[in-house]
Fold this protein.
Amino acid sequence: MSESAGNAPPLSQAAGQKTVQVWLRMIFAYTALVIGSAVMILPFLWVVSTSLKTSPEVFAYPVVWIPEVIQWGNYPMVLELLPFGRYLLNTAFVTTSVTILEVVTASLAAFAFARLRFRGRDKLFMLYLGTLMIPGQVTLIPNFLLMRWFGWIDTYLALIVPAAFSAFGTFLLRQFFLSIPRELEEAARVDGASPFRVYWQIIMPLSGPALATFAVFSFMTQWNAFLWPMIVTQSEGTRTLTVGLRFFQDELVTQFNYLMAGTVMSIVPVLVLFLALQRYFVRGIAMTGMGGR
Amino acid sequence: MFLAPNIIGFLLFSMLPVGATLVISLLNWDLIRDPEFVGLQNYTTLLTEDPLFREVLFNTAYFVVGVVPASIVISLLLALAMNNGLRGISLFRAIFFIPVITSSVAVAMLWRWLYNTDYGLINVGLNAMGLPYIPWLTSTDWAMPAVIIMAVWKSLGYNMVIYLAGLQGISPTLYEAAALDGAGGWARFRDITLPLLGPTTFFILVISVINSFQVFDLTFILTQGGPGIATTTIVMYIYDQGFRYFQMGYAAAIAWVLFIIIFLITLAQMQYQKRWVHYD
């Protein structure tokens, strides 16, 4: 101890060295982050720029970043080329329905797992956890056959119902419900409140952030879903945006200005939601991260 | 009562199908004629007689090995850069997160244009630096690297946010104590940061491997599995067999093989983690 103290430089010099080091690190970190951010953001700017160009400008060399005359008309044009409005409406309807149903069914089940006593509760919960590890493709074929058997192919039901039950959400909300102190409900129980009243009037109002986190996640997942909607939709009446974009791509192979306008329109709704509710997105990530510990 | 809605849905759309897939995988069923029981024939064909499947398996492994380590290393570096008490962290975090929230379909549409051989931004940039054009999506050698670069780009923000949460959970007093003991920056990183991030890294590793094995949307839109079958992955093969050729039994068998592969790899990671991950 005394030895190292003897070798240490005088305090002010050490502090000076330290600030230089800290500054260097800050500059280094900023540089890395600015370059990284540019790599993240440039493709999006390029897409927006492309979506506002005329066809010759799209293929111009050197690259035109800001079109001479901004072609706002590309956007209404896309709406004419394909029933984009319909796709948007389908996606919005399906996504909203799934999100609401998922939150309701998952919070009810989570409440049962967190607060009620019944036989086989813990075993059943383990089963739920177990299915989280099963890749979705394993259930793809039987679910498709089930939809066929129900006669639900190419209906909203096929898009909504199988997606409305989330084992992940049940797990997430159960963990949160367990963290709510039981004392809060005891008074209500003594007064003879039913479990449903406890769920609805005590647990749910206290769980705003957790519910919002799950809802935001559910919304994003559903909005971006592709494989299942592609399999169970067959007509424009039920197709979602992602599936619509794919057909759009097949039709307009190299008309990149229209393709990119369509892509931008599909991104914007989730982007707006993200910018408005950013902390719930980030919290959701942190929570799923915690799940692995 | 509370469980009823969820459990019915859960049984019908999650538990039942897992078993059903196993049963279907024992059938020869094209949805037109009646299903015919063929025992394990789908599996023996798949594993011993199907050269396509071997290639598909290789492509998928190539993708996983290409994406996972690169994404982990880069996202850790970014999280470290961000964990310096800088201003504007939330702005950077938001920017890195935009590709995460964007649908894979939109991302792949966007990159298809970026990768365009003659007019895409990437080749135009390479050309400006005096480098030759790369036929990203039309060459069997370049198509998979193109898919991998795009997938890493999309995944960085997610892993970075998890790493950032892990970094913020490390007590600053540990670094102070180490600094007093004369540990340099690299030594502190190696002896404090990395070991304490062990559980975080393990989580990211397991999740990334599972997700990468299931890649579909990105490759389906970017390359349609081509050129040839250079970027056809396992899930695309399931889709092709099941929903283009309507070989339901064969597709179900592939799905089960995928499940077993993912299960075994996850299990191996769980076993192996005891050697390098320490929970305190």
